[in-house]
Design goal:
heterodimer; A: about 375 residues; mainly alpha; 15 helices; about 0% strand; B: about 300 residues; two-stranded antiparallel ribbon; 2 strands; globular
């Protein structure tokens, strides 16, 4: 069994089994027919209604589902990368949600309050969101390095601080959209056209520049992590901080930098949501994309490419999940699949043992069970 | 003034058991060396199953069902992290995700999206003699869970510090290989602690749906599990400390709600978001001041392998 296959096999098997369990869940709570129809709808909603297309239907039957899937995948790629990058230096970033909230708010404010030409406005809004997310993520890094506070606890706390301050204060208070006429609107002011992420398919789909940006980010993270000296040092710290320190690697510095990058990526997820689809900071972010990032990063094996692939897959599932609601399947269904897949991937070693027994490969070394390197 | 204090104390004691039990459960598991990030998911399973069970049986029994549900979730965590040496944080987070999405899915297919039908709440007990005393009156009129939450930390602390079992539990979280050298089962002790932690977390969830409210609601427990983890860290992994911190958080919460309802003028000056963020900011500041690292069990989160040293 190839090294590469062995790395992705547990994720693939877990996703497949999670899909099967999800099917069983619908069949049990409803009936077999509904389950079949629901999965059919999921495919149609996620990758397009091919049947209708072959019969000569309009192009939108394909582009809209793909566009929706791509839009969702962009967000999941960014938060997944955020979590994956932190994993690589040995930190568990549960705070991607909070960093995303902060980034989204800053993107909304910069997008709405400044008036600049488009070639400056959009990059500036993205940059500001990234910086804001990065700064928010620096707090847990500093608390960890200076005071030994575990990042799992501090990032969870900071999630709530971000949500409380933004959703319950700024967005309903100082930054609330100015009422137009009699309509009182929720959320902040709409961003100006100069700060919007351009749509790629025109009016055919909501797909915007966010997806290419996310894939570009994945490629850059891959280059940085696996092809540069700093990236090598980051991974060394993640494998063992003591050994890295002995080898002369500035551990504290690498941890700080990487956490800031993780926060920036989560902040960009917020920016893509605001500048690409919502066009303002809504009354609340809605879906917990930051938490989804954890599942995506782990299913992708904390590898930038794997993370992007997992994000694309779950983007399809999410877009398809919207269609499933037509049959009365709850909208949390894709999240259920995602959670189950993560649960199954946690038992990675079980899969590998199972596969090894079947393929009767003998003498190969036991694959390390740890998925999250610890600092 | 006295009346306000009394009301605050009463609502603190009413809401605290959920947080206290969850913090105790997390502490039990982590003292044996198994990370308990999944406590939120266990609480959610406990709250849901207890509320559903109470539709068909006396609420007291339903609480036991909720405990069982917490233990089942913990068993999944134990199977993955003990049997298959999965990363314990990952396994715990996966439990949380499954409990959140799966709970929503099942809730919607069986009842309504917002929650289960109402059930009979656990009966409350008034303590004779205390009813007439100002301030102490707040101690009276709670369910048995409240009194259990006040006593259990001391019982568990005594178990941990004064019994042979407690010594072994502590040792398995610090030096599992030394425990194995004595011919004791590391995995057995850890399984016991994980399941016990699940029972307690399930009890915490059941306290929410059977004592604080009278039904399961969609967003229960809404982060209380993570708050319990913070209480555990803040209490430096001791049962009494964790329970004390949990009571402190519950009091902070009661104070916030009390302030908002008794002094609406306050919301004009201090935005609600500030009040909401306050307990978390406070926790962070206190954690930063105390530091956290030195007190976690040495073998926490390290999967046990017989052959490695």
């Amino acid at each position: 069994m190839g090294e590469r296959l062995r790395a992705v096999l547990p994720s693939l098997l877990s996703i497949a089994l999670a899909l099967a369990l999800g099917f069983l869940a619908i069949a049990l709570t409803r009936d077999l027919d509904t389950a079949l129809q629901a999965y059919g709808q999921m495919l149609a909603g996620g990758i397009g209604d091919w049947g209708a297309y072959l019969e000569g239907g309009p192009l939108t039957l394909l582009t809209r589902p793909w566009g929706e899937a791509g839009t969702k995948a962009a967000l999941l790629t960014f938060t997944g990368l955020s979590v994956a990058v932190a994993f690589r230096v040995g930190l568990f970033n549960i705070g991607a949600q909070g960093q995303m909230v902060v980034g989204a708010l800053v993107a909304a404010v910069v997008g709405a309050q400044l008036s600049l030409p488009a070639f400056l406005h959009l990059p500036l809004a993205l940059l500001a969101a990234g910086v804001a997310g990065g700064l928010w993520a620096l707090l847990p890094a500093l608390l960890k390095l200076r005071r030994g506070v575990h990042e799992v606890i501090s990032t969870i706390m900071l999630n709530w601080v971000a949500v409380s301050l933004v959703d319950n204060w700024l967005v309903v208070g100082p930054l609330r959209a100015s009422a137009s006429g009699e309509l009182s609107r929720s959320g902040t002011d709409e961003v100006l056209a100069t700060a919007e992420l351009p749509r790629l398919l025109g009016s055919l789909s909501r797909l915007n520049l966010g997806l290419p940006l996310a894939l570009l980010a994945a490629a850059l993270v891959w280059l940085w992590l696996l092809r540069t000296r700093v990236g090598y040092e980051v991974r060394a710290v993640g494998q063992g901080a003591e050994a890295a320190r002995t080898a002369g690697i500035p551990v504290a510095r690498r941890v700080t930098e990487t956490m800031a990058l993780a926060g920036a990526l989560a902040g960009l997820a917020g920016a893509v949501l605001v500048l690409g689809t919502e066009l303002k900071y809504p009354s609340s972010l809605g879906a917990p994309y930051g938490f989804d990032g954890i599942a995506i990063a782990l299913l992708g094996g904390s590898h930038p490419g794997g993370t992007a692939a997992a994000a694309l897959f779950f983007g399809v599932l999410r877009a398809g999940g919207t269609r499933m609601q037509l049959l009365g399947v709850h909208k949390s269904f894709p999240e259920l699949i995602q959670g189950l897949a993560l649960l199954l991937v946690a038992g990675r070693l079980a899969w590998l043992t199972l596969v090894r027994r079947r393929s009767a490969v003998t003498g190969s070394a036991v694959v390390a069970s740890t998925e999250v390197p610890r600092a | 003034m006295l009346e306000v204090l009394e009301a605050l104390l009463h609502s603190t004691l009413e809401a605290a058991p959920a947080l206290v039990f969850a913090a105790l459960g997390a502490t039990l598991s982590e003292r044996a060396g198994v990370v308990s990030v999944g406590v939120e998911g266990m609480m959610r399973a406990g709250a849901f199953c207890a509320a559903v069970a109470a539709l068909y049986m006396p609420t007291g029994l339903a609480v036991l069902v909720g405990m069982g549900a917490g233990a089942v979730m913990a068993a999944v965590h134990g199977y993955l992290s003990l049997r298959w040496r999965a990363d314990q944080v990952v396994s715990g987070m996966a439990l949380n995700l499954v409990a959140l999405a799966g709970g929503t899915f099942v809730l919607e297919s069986l009842y309504s999206p917002s929650g289960t039908p109402s059930i009979t709440q656990l009966r409350t007990w008034s303590l004779p003699g205390l009813d007439a005393v100002p301030l102490l009156r707040a101690l009276s009129g709670h369910s048995l869970l409240t009194y259990l939450a006040l006593l259990l930390p001391f019982a568990l602390q005594a178990l941990l510090q004064r019994t042979a079992l407690g010594l072994r539990l502590r040792a398995v979280g610090e030096r599992p290989h030394a425990v194995a050298t004595l011919g004791l089962s590391v995995l057995g002790l850890r399984w016991g602690a994980v399941l016990g932690g699940g029972l307690l977390a399930g009890l915490g969830g059941a306290a929410l749906s059977c004592a604080v409210l009278d039904r399961f609601e969609q967003h229960m427990p809404a982060g209380l599990g993570f708050m319990a983890l913070a209480a555990m860290v803040f209490g430096r992994w001791s049962f009494r400390g964790a329970a004390g911190a949990a009571l402190f958080f519950a009091a902070g919460n009661a104070l916030r709600i009390g302030l908002a309802s008794s002094a609406p003028g306050l919301l004009q000056v201090v935005p609600q978001g500030f009040l909401l963020a306050l307990p978390y900011v406070l926790t962070l500041v206190l954690l930063a001041l105390r530091g956290g690292k030195a007190h976690a069990p040495a073998a926490l989160g390290v999967p046990y392998e017989q052959e490695s040293r």
